[in-house]
Amino acid sequence: MAYKSDIEIAREAQKKPIQEIGAKIGIQSADLLPYGHDKAKVSQSFINSVQGRPDGKLILVTAINPTPAGEGKTTTTVGLGDGLNRIGKKAMVCIREASLGPNFGMKGGAAGGGYAQIVPMEEMNLHFTGDFHAITSAHSLLSAMIDNHIYWGNELDIDLRRVVWRRVVDMNDRALRQITASLGGVANGFPREAGFDITVASEVMAILCLAKDLKDLQNRLGDMIVAYRRDRSPVFCRDIKADGAMTVLLKDAMQPNIVQTLENNPAFVHGGPFANIAHGCNSVIATTTALKLTDYVVTEAGFGADLGAEKFMNIKCRKAGISPSVVVCVATVRAMKMNGGVAKADLGTENVDAVKAGCPNLGRHIENLKSFGVPVVVAINHFVTDTDAEVQAVKDFVAEQGAEAVLSRHWELGSEGSADLATKVAELADAGTADFAPIYPDEMSLADKIQTIAKKIYRADGAVMDQKILDQLKLWEDQGYGSLPVCMAKTQYSFSTDPTLRGAPTGFNVPVREVRLSAGAGFVVAVCGEIMTMPGLPRVPSAESIHLNEDGQIEGLF
Amino acid sequence: MAYKSDIEIAREAQKKPIQEIGAKIGIQSADLLPYGHDKAKVSQSFINSVQGRPDGKLILVTAINPTPAGEGKTTTTVGLGDGLNRIGKKAMVCIREASLGPNFGMKGGAAGGGYAQIVPMEEMNLHFTGDFHAITSAHSLLSAMIDNHIYWGNELDIDLRRVVWRRVVDMNDRALRQITASLGGVANGFPREAGFDITVASEVMAILCLAKDLKDLQNRLGDMIVAYRRDRSPVFCRDIKADGAMTVLLKDAMQPNIVQTLENNPAFVHGGPFANIAHGCNSVIATTTALKLTDYVVTEAGFGADLGAEKFMNIKCRKAGISPSVVVCVATVRAMKMNGGVAKADLGTENVDAVKAGCPNLGRHIENLKSFGVPVVVAINHFVTDTDAEVQAVKDFVAEQGAEAVLSRHWELGSEGSADLATKVAELADAGTADFAPIYPDEMSLADKIQTIAKKIYRADGAVMDQKILDQLKLWEDQGYGSLPVCMAKTQYSFSTDPTLRGAPTGFNVPVREVRLSAGAGFVVAVCGEIMTMPGLPRVPSAESIHLNEDGQIEGLF
């Protein structure tokens, strides 16, 4: 049997006007700012008007450590949302927006896959509603104002060598990683080293995704540290007086975007911070608004559960005052087999032993997730080559961990395939057994927070931090940043910092190479390993084959 | 009597839903891609569907050389459009989009002024429908792909020192004018000098504004020269294989944006190329589409008539196969007085002699415009301090030139104030006396085209080009670019290249400093004097006071 590609399915979507989708969750046309006929932003006045309502139940979708086999976390998020609607529940999905730049390197990602997708797929991979462009603009304005301040006399006494605010562009452009700026003489300013990151790595992105409202947004923007003086005292965005204009540039970008699934159920797609140097979740404003509109909100976290779910719990939930009723951990038979040592080329052959050998990775994630006080369901995202025996092996393993694994066939069948998963998830959410708590308190020292995550989540012997890093953390504590959560930046492929170490490794340390303060976003980043904040393009970038065909359709993007 | 500010008037606008505005010119809801409730893009299928219709009459609004007093070219364009509708004609306005970056330096510009404005004003000065962001993205993609090509082996043999494709950002950021890129070692590429221009200076912008359709757009993008080899042979965008993906990024940006005047008449606001290194007009696709939809289309050209109207005629009209039925040259009593030697502080005092002394600047523009075979009307854009005697002095002068000057009070009264102007303009357009022709033929040599403009339009003794420039022009002719029009880049403040030389100077030369080939846009730029393609921010940028007030309204932008 031949399966259709994601893009073929997406192009056949019977989309409804976005006004009809909005109406399903009580948003009238006047409160929807349309972008074309199939996308809209939700007005701030509508968001204000629903604040008094009770919250629905939040369902987090996370996954095992990613493998080249693919797990289908977003696909499962979308499939579960549709499944809940199918079994008569009022539910919606909240996911992140895609970054523009990387689509021109590798092929762009669908929002989901198979019959569990969010549309319009092309536009979500291109300019969408312009949120990331607005973030680029706001970031760039601050960049220009910092150098302009220095140019006109540097009243704030910024140390040229200690400007920590880099520039951004939403493009994979390695040539801009490290530059010398302000060359060419007096009229162009004071030469200094500088560089660009990709837009999703901007602290502005993280802030937009954590801010409660526009006022909170402006405050956080103002709190960002952009440079230091020779005496090491920080210079804030507020000192540059850029926070007001940046907020104006971000006014529309702060409003959640509503789109639809292939089954015409509503979805918020809003915000997209990096999952390494930032927290990797969709916006707080989208999630909290969705919770006022439907009884169940399905959302996802970045990477595997060790990074994404941990940050979702310890950063987003803590800051937004929300908590999940259930966590769904996505696994696939194929990924279990890879964890069990099977090469990608051999994944199509039944191998129950390899499945069993790979299960400990899943087991540790289940245990970790439970430690946040939240019930866990494993979703086995079905692939056509999976055998019954392999699926049963996963189910048996999960049962031993005191949880339940449900086979879900949303990719192939849409909500018909995810109804069982939805039923189980709704049952657990309704049971109200969740008793959520972050795994470390605000008042724990920054170094101990890092140790806690390294030991309790990664199961490392400990985090290794040299004196310079410990001193830096201490200094930030003295400056009043001690109560911030930490944001771990490490490889997503392993519990350890070695991407090749699959399964459930033990007996390793987590070396912390560097710490960074995101004072506006409100977290301290612990960098453990190489972190790339400006990707490059491959030898043959996908851009070379992207074009419009004779019918005006986009080819080569997927 | 106290007058309201532009922003106060704009905020009081009784806007109609954009679907109603579209319906006025026969565009149904399905063919409007809305961006919020008051902006939309016109679908390509609608544009295709009207191609068989006859063209309406095109009216060009231009002006004398700008003075600090302000002439109100856009205000008059909008006022005339409303005036034509008021006297029962079916008419619409086509103007350019505003650039984002400069709004954070100086206060942003309204689209028009007083009671002759286009709304929504704030959004038109911010992200609008994202066209400029799309242009920035497309331009940045090509930039990244060029350095990526070099990084992966430089198969095209690009000379690192001869990459002529600069980068762009829509921000006033002088620190980026000249940089060294690809620093930091092997992984970041080969270090080379580079730099950024502001987005409106991008050749992509000029192309978007000259392309007939998406196919033409892609062809022109492919034709752009991005670098040279050591043997001086050009490397094209097409060689980098970026043209297809750039077209995909520009797909929506190519569609004209429809908004409305304060009097709820339709306006296309689309494209905004620089008026010095590019041709400075709104898009061809907007203008040609508007001509299919209404009987009269009022559009404007950049700067004064010596630059803007000349390029409109010799570049845009020639390339698009359109021609104006009437040209309106905007003048004000105040500007005449400044041309006559009065200081700005004294403009409020009646001074008929100064008005008369300043009139020759206007006279020369009238003569120039007539040389294109098009009838000319002078619009005296009324200012509250103008006296009857001063207005009469302008009218008398214009009558001596064989044209007519009409006082227009659209700023104060909207269409009630511009009905006389509209009546005169419609009468001239309907008379059908225009017999348009560019002032030089395609087959004239590039050097002679420059000489022709310098002598016939500027009334210089001649253009001065050294041998190097003449050789360059000759080389381009040999390469097949000889039939392109030339795009003059000189000061807008004078017929000469000396911005302080007001009035109608003679006895000067026009030194051509440099020539550039915009092979995709399809013109050769002759740079005469200092041209800034990346502005800086002032000591106290307006961004410092831009913010959202308690009601969520934008303050400080205007």
Automatic annotation (TrEMBL), chains A, B:
Alphabetized InterPro entries for the sequence: Formate_THF_ligase (IPR000559), Formate_THF_ligase_CS (IPR020628), P-loop_NTPase (IPR027417)
Reactions that this protein is recorded to catalyse: (6S)-5,6,7,8-tetrahydrofolate + formate + ATP = (6R)-10-formyltetrahydrofolate + ADP + phosphate
Pfam family, one: FTHFS
GO molecular function, one term: formate-tetrahydrofolate ligase activity
Pathway: One-carbon metabolism; tetrahydrofolate interconversion
Binding site residues for ATP: 67-74
Source organism superkingdom: Bacteria
Keywords carried by this UniProt record: ATP-binding, Ligase, Nucleotide-binding, One-carbon metabolism
E.C. code: 6.3.4.3
PROSITE patterns in alphabetical order: FTHFS_1 (PS00721), FTHFS_2 (PS00722)
Family affiliation: Belongs to the formate--tetrahydrofolate ligase family.
Designated name of the protein: Formate--tetrahydrofolate ligase
Organism: Tateyamaria armeniaca
Taxon lineage: Bacteria, Pseudomonadati, Pseudomonadota, Alphaproteobacteria, Rhodobacterales
Encoding gene (name): fhs
